[in-house]
Write a structure and sequence with these properties.
Largest sheet: 7 strands, antiparallel
Number of domains: 6
Helix content: 25-40%
Radius of gyration: 35 Å
CATH topology of the largest domain: Topoisomerase I, domain 2
Oligomer: single chain
Number of helices: 23
CATH class of the largest domain: Mainly Alpha
CATH superfamily of the largest domain: Topoisomerase I, domain 2
């Protein structure tokens, strides 16, 4: 672009908006995020070469960097305007390095510009004040990327060898997983404790009712567990009912409640989870769109400031705008005498940007609602209210506590309440809290009671309670806990939670995280053999060192050397572990989870084998993961999946041996049973027919259970409906082609002519009707035009880190790695293929391919025909020779 200034941003939406702000002298392009990364293979980071790093331009990014390089030829200057954080600085550095490598930067200047919001004033001001790339931020990025790579590519192979079924492990994700698993262990070990409370319903002299609770008995203040059983509670209840109640004291005090600071990344994710039920990933995706710009009246406008920040600082201009709007809309009573300043906890001032706030305080949610999608509107409203409320006057509350004694002074009750005298910021925004204890909630308004008043007792009850285990983590509470511990950073929280779910280490059920057995196994292994490196304090300390690097207080390679030397040694020791050592250690750690302990905490009773009667059950590992087995193997062949371990010696239906007979099919008279196979549970109609030699002649009809089904709850009716699939729903009203519903290798589907469309999770393949099916097909759009190959990624190949995927082609299901396609054997359910199985299939295919190549070069058509003819002659000669040799009887060989 001869004579122009080139500006590089990260997203195309941002590029269009900024191009309008800057005018014709500037050409704005998008890098679409990172353009280079470490190749996912061994050797990308070389500790022995002073941590030299090998970078590779992503295949999808090559087109982008080519466009940027082309634009730079003849340009006056290059402005790198990527996001204002550590990752943004790294993207700018990668672009500069790649362009330098291509020798296109020699004649032009390169400068870095940052802006916290996409508004004309912010962009033009940033362009007028460029700077050089920040070397300290780049070093911090390099250190973090190298650490994550070294941990992942060093630890994952250890897991694959020592813990079959494990997928991989990450430096920070594994610590977050440990939090979830340890919380689950606390819940399982929790023993409820009984306690009682005495609650009274009373009335003032004017008849106004209010509630009170017993706090003192016989002159002693009651602790939570002082009324530990029904007998003690009844004694206390009798004292409360003795009568003669009189107000002994009335305590009144006025308190102020101050607004919460504006949002940071973590607090936004927490509040969006609690109030809007948005996951962390969804919150960040919506915030990204609000930041990059929304079309308002034909012009793209950024509605919020940058959404990855750990700062609560608000610019003076924004504070002044908020105060002006508060006075105009809510009045001077709601405006504090001076602006509120919030201190950020961020250690690194170079990365402490502004808080998350609206770019214009005057742009109220109702003003932009018609331009936003519903979820965008909800998130913008949350951000706007929090930002404005943080500059409003504090709320004033009157709190009252009244002590009431019985006539004989044996019992004292307390009634408490609060009244909002001035709502202040509460008129706009109330911060929500997770898992607040009922005992901590403030009471309502109390009648006007004075010392000496004699309220009447309407009723009194003794209420039984039990202590509750700690709650499972929600996305909000997990992010909050990670932030408290100093684990991770604002830009990483959403990806951490997503990775844990994608690897099937945790399950998000009813908005709370529950660890899967696979996740607990990984955590048990890491806490047993890598405890130091996945300790909360160690991980937080490493984050502080990364902050020190970005602040220029420590050299990044010093951090890497200190970490790698010890970590490499621990890994070498782990590779020397025997299978028995790993099994015994993990069995000891997870024993209480798989085998419920007795009152003394002993698991031996639950470990008794129900099959042979004298064997001991324990954890074992096979090619495809962990399972439960008996110590008397092979004499006792009892094995169970991990999810059945807790019911082996109980009364649960899952303790029943499979197959479990459900009844007979009324049409065929054949038995219908639930069975357990190597790849899960299924229902079967009848038995396999065999010929005289014992070989299977015809296979019985089978149907896999849906993922949402429990094998112990399947009844005959449900089994017959599964066996009836695929079922015809009717003809499509427009195409007149039949529409059917069934279950395939990739889950429930609808078939319309030759088109296959996956059924949404909320629809039931057993009950869906034609009308709903037509709607689903219409919503599928282009997917309904023909059958497409469906691919699913299984994980990275250990040799080069490239993905291994599962797909279906014209010759059936296959696994793919690079250019190698390996067919999945018949009889193997594609969905049940694991990463380890796929690696074996690909290795076998590669070996076969290599053997074919070593046999010689490919022959031309003429040579192939000649070779075929020669082979035919040789074959005929062999047959003739074989006939002659049959005439002579060969002498018997001696047995060796």
């Amino acid at each position: 672009m001869t004579g122009q200034n080139v500006v590089v941003v990260e997203s195309p939406a941002k590029a269009k908006t900024i191009n309008k702000y800057l005018g014709g002298d500037y050409y704005v392009l998008a890098s679409y995020g990172h353009i280079r990364d470490l190749p996912p293979k061994d050797g990308s980071v070389q500790p022995d070469a002073d941590f030299a790093m090998e970078w590779e331009v992503d295949s999808r990014a090559k087109k982008r960097i080519d466009e940027i390089a082309k634009a730079c030829k003849g340009a006056k200057a290059l402005f790198l305007a990527t996001d204002p954080d550590r990752e943004g600085e790294a993207i700018s550095w990668h672009i500069q390095e790649e362009l330098t490598k291509r020798k296109v930067l020699a004649p032009i200047s390169v400068q870095r510009v940052v802006f916290n919001e996409i508004t004309k004033s912010a962009v033009t001001n940033a362009m007028a004040n460029p700077r050089d790339l920040n070397r300290e931020l780049i070093d911090a990025y390099l250190a973090r990327r190298a650490l994550d790579y070294l941990v992942g590519f060093t630890l994952s192979p250890v897991l694959w060898r020592k813990l079959p079924g494990a997928k991989s492990a990450g430096r920070v994700q594994s610590v977050a997983l440990r939090l979830i698993c340890e919380r689950e262990a606390e819940i399982e070990a929790f023993k409820p404790r009984e306690y009682w409370s005495i609650d009274a319903q009373m009335a003032a002299a004017d008849g106004t009712p209010f509630a009170a609770r017993l706090t003192h008995l016989n002159g002693k203040k009651l602790d939570k567990f002082d009324l530990g059983d029904k007998s003690a509670a009844e004694t206390a209840l009798a004292a409360v009912r003795s009568g003669g109640h009189q107000v002994q004291s009335v305590e009144r005090k006025q308190v102020k409640r101050h607004p919460a600071p504006p949002f940071t990344t973590s607090t936004l994710q927490q509040e969006a989870s609690r109030k809007l039920y948005f996951g962390a990933t969804k919150t960040m995706t919506l915030a990204q769109k609000l930041y990059e710009g929304i079309q308002l009246g034909g012009e793209a406008v950024g509605l919020i400031t940058y959404m990855r920040t750990d700062s609560t600082t608000m610019s003076g201009e924004a504070i002044a705008a908020a105060r002006g709007m508060i006075e105009d809309v809510y009045g001077s009573d709601y405006l504090p005498s001076g602006p509120r300043q919030y201190r950020t906890k961020a250690k690194n001032a170079q990365e402490a940007h502004e808080c998350i706030r609206p770019t214009s305080m005057r742009r109220r949610p109702e003003d932009v609602a018609r331009y936003l999608e519903p979820d965008q509107r909800k998130l913008y409203e949350l951000i706007w209210k929090r930002a404005v409320a943080c500059q409003m006057e504090s709320a004033t509350l009157d709190q009252v506590a009244v002590d009431i004694d019985t006539a004989d002074k044996s019992a004292r009750l307390r009634a408490s309440g609060s009244v909002v005298r001035f709502d202040g910021f509460l008129t706009l925004y109330i911060e929500s809290e997770d898992d607040k204890d009922d005992d901590d909630k403030e009471g309502g308004r109390l009648p006007d009671l004075k010392e000496g008043d004699r309220p009447g007792l309407l009723n009194a009850d003794a209420n039984q309670h039990f202590t509750q285990p700690p709650p499972r983590f929600t996305e909000a509470s997990l992010v909050k806990r990670m932030e408290e511990l100093g684990i991770g950073r604002p830009s990483t929280y959403a990806s951490i939670l997503k990775v844990l779910q994608d690897r099937e280490y945790v399950l998000l059920d009813k908005r709370r995280f529950q660890p899967e057995d696979r996740g607990r196994l990984v955590t048990a292994f890491l806490s047993s053999f890598y405890d130091k490196y996945f300790d909360y304090a160690f991980t937080a300390g490493l984050e502080e060192q990364l902050d020190d690097i970005s602040g220029g207080r420590i050299d990044w390679k010093t951090v890497l050397r200190d970490f790698w030397t010890a970590f490499r040694g621990i890994t070498d020791q782990a590779m020397e572990l025997t299978g028995q050592e790993v099994r015994e250690k993990i069995d000891a750690v997870l024993g209480p989870h798989f085998f419920p302990p007795d009152e003394k905490g002993d698991t031996e009773a639950a470990r008794k084998c129900p099959s042979c009667g004298n064997g001991r059950l324990s954890l074992n590992f096979g090619r495809y993961g962990a399972f439960i087995t008996c110590s008397n193997y092979p004499d006792c062949k009892l094995t169970r999946n991990l999810d059945e371990a807790g019911n082996l010696n109980g009364d649960s239906p899952d303790a029943t041996e499979y197959p479990r007979l459900l009844g007979t099919d009324p049409e065929t008279g054949l038995d219908v049973a639930v069975r357990q196979g190597p790849y899960g549970y299924y229902v079967q109609l009848g038995e396999a027919e065999k010929d005289a030699k014992g070989k299977t002649k015809t296979k019985p009809k089978r149907a896999s259970l849906l993922k949402t089904m429990e094998p112990s709850t399947i009844d005959l009716e449900t089994a017959l409906r599964l066996l009836s699939l695929p079922r015809l729903l009717g003809d499509h009203p427009e195409s007149k082609l039949p529409v059917a519903a069934g279950i395939g290798r990739f889950g429930p589907y609808l078939k319309h002519g030759d088109a296959y469309v996956s059924l949404p999770k909320d629809d039931d393949v057993l009950t869906i009707g034609l009308n709903r099916a037509v709607t689903v097909l219409a919503e599928a759009g282009p997917k309904g035009k023909g059958r497409a190959s469906v691919a699913k990624e299984l994980g990275p190949h250990p040799s080069d880190g490239k993905p291994i995927s599962l797909g279906s082609g014209r010759f059936g299901p296959y696994v793919k790695h690079g250019k190698i396609y390996a067919s999945i054997p018949r009889g193997t359910e594609p969905d049940a293929v694991t990463l380890e199985q796929a690696i074996e299939l690909i290795a076998a295919k590669a070996a076969k391919k290599a053997a074919g190549k070593s046999a010689g070069p490919k022959q031309s058509g003429a040579k192939k025909a000649a070779a075929k003819k020669s082979t035919a002659k040789k074959s005929a000669a062999k047959k003739a020779k074989s006939k002659k040799s049959k005439a002579k009887k060969a002498p018997a060989r001696k047995a060796s």
